[in-house]
Amino acid sequence: MRSDTSAADPDTYDVIVLGGGPAGENAAQYAIAGSDRTVALVEHELVGGECSYWACMPSKALLRPTQVLATARHMPGVQQKINARGVNPAAVLARRDGFTHDRDDTAQVLWADAQGIDVLRGRARLTGDRTVTVTGDRPRDLRARHAVVLATGTTAAVPDLPGLRAALPWTSRDATNLREIPPRVLVLGGGPVACETTAWLRQLGAEEVTVVARGPRLLPRVEPFAADAVAARMKVRDVRVRCGTQVRSVTRPDARDTGIGRIHGGPLTVELDDGSTVEVDELVVAAGRRPTTDDLGLGTVGLDDGAALTVDDHLNVDGVDGTWLYAVGDVAGRAALTHMGKYQARVCGDVIAARAEQRPLDGARYRAGADHGQVPQVIFTVPEIASVGHTAASARDAGIDVEVLETELEVAGAALARDDFAGHAALIVDRATDTLVGATFVGTEVAELVHAATVAVVGQVPLDTLWHAVPAYPTVSEVWLRLLETRRP
Fold first, then answer.
1. Which range among 2-16, 235-249, 472-486 shows the weakest confidence by mean pLDDT?
2. Less packed terminus of the chain by CB within 10 Å, N or C?
């Protein structure tokens, strides 16, 4: 059943989406696809969101030239022609700016318009059941017939440590949009953002890079062998890694807001909890993110203002009466990854469409099941880490009796790719069902291996069946055969 919009109030929409990042865009697109339903997409910054301008796209644009250079340096017949001094920073930054369109969202807005999505500029907050107020150049009070979708994402968390916030440190936005390369940098954090940032800062010319991580090792949520490989490579590249260490205080007498990606004033002195100090030209805070819910008006719908949201598998927000309020992407409190946010948004949009047309929510497509132990991820460190589902430790914590199959990435396809190709792979097998519940690959450009593993995990493919998924020769995917061979009698 479609909406009769012929005499609609201009401030009434079938669907209202708060937040114009990838998740918000997908939710809006799917909710109205093939119908005459209307949707408003409210965004106070740039349509395309964090991923397009400050995260995924610029960070990978910064990392890729280094990968290409490394491959060339380990390819006889090519390496002799390579300049030993490294990448050209100005050219790398220019290519990055091409992908982010110099933070101009005109193309994204044109895409939205072509999909029938009405883009509204301003900040939005809930004011009650299906009602939203938008502040900005044109303040408006909106009402949704069917659904409101929260897709406001997260923001970088800056710990409340003595002197840290006053020092105006870089966050991930500065690091991905850097205009100046600090000679000496301290990166606070040990997760994916911290480790990726370290990789491009070092390759772009930062002379001294120090990583300070509170936990006992880098990348605590991945398999230990993968984290150890990244730490070992950092050591080779003269990156100082201080795990099990905390920042006690930060001093920066000359802190100035010089703009995104520029050094924010004079040098900083960072005191660590062992009493030592580090002097740097810039400090990058990569210590996690917090949901952007502070000014969403959650109190008007029975939730605590600024609360962390949880959702069911239809992506409805827990604790709110009815089935009109949804959340997708990082703000939903599940896997904080762009591809998972877009996945949730597709499910959410389909659910909204089905409910609007009074169709049953039968079938897997209307439930976000991949968030439960089937999440793929690539960490674009040096070396790369590609994984899906459980690690051995998380599977055991979940009560699964597992068998771990492991091998080195020593196959013909890898040897042909480049002379220094190296890495390690592990499959996590549920003994009860003889199916995969997880996989991890670490090594040279292993990102493209993860989707095959994701299909095997999501499809619950028995290992006996995987024997008949023959890897093409000579490709790096031959590692699948080597992994299966480890359990032959």
1. 2-16
2. C
Specify whether 331 is located in the same domain as 423. Answer: no
DSSP H stretches of helix in 278-369: 338-356
pLDDT reported for residue 421: 86
CATH number, domain of 388, equals 3.30.390.30
CATH number, domain containing residue 207: 3.50.50.60
Provide the pLDDT confidence category of residue 5 given band limits of 50, 70 and 90.
very low
Radius of gyration of the chain (CA): 24
Q: What is the tens place of the pLDDT at every residue in 421-433?
A: 889 999 999 999 9
Q: Quick one: residue 363, left, alpha or beta (phi over 0 = left, psi -120 to 50 = alpha)?
A: left
pLDDT tens-digit profile of 139-189? Answer: 999 999 999 999 999 999 999 999 999 999 999 999 999 999 999 999 999
Query: Beta partners for 279?
Result: 269
DSSP string, 84-121: TT---HHHHHHHHHHHTGGG--HHHHHHHHHTTEEEEE
Q: Residue 286: CB partners within 8 Å, gap ≥ 6? A: 156, 171, 172, 175, 187, 188, 189, 191, 193, 194, 197
Residue 329: which region, alpha, beta or left (left: phi > 0; alpha: psi -120 to 50)?
A: left
d(CA 249, CA 186): 13
pLDDT at 10: 64
What is the tally of structural domains in the chain? 4
In a domain, 481, yes or no: yes
- Give mean pLDDT, residues 211-220: 97
Angle between the 106-114 and 22-32 helix axes, to the nearest 10 degrees? 20
Asked whether the predicted pLDDT for residue 244 surpasses 60, the reply is yes
Alpha helices in 445-478 (DSSP H): 450-458, 463-466
For the chain, the distance separating the N- and C-terminal CA atoms, rounded to the nearest angstrom, is: 59
Closest CA to 46 of 60, 30, 62, 58: 58
CA distances from 247 to 15, 79, 124, 364 (A): 45, 42, 36, 46
Distance CA 89, CA 157 (A): 28
Do 151 and 295 lie in one domain? The reply is yes
Across residues 47-70, what is the average pLDDT? 93
Cβ 252 vs Cβ 455: under 8 Å:
no
Q: 178 with 253, same domain?
A: yes
Domain that holds residue 220: 165-287
Strand, coil or helix: what is 72? helix
Q: Does one domain contain both 149 and 175?
A: no
User: Which pTM value belongs to this model?
Assistant: 0.93
C-alpha to C-alpha distance for 168 and 197, rounded to whole angstroms: 18
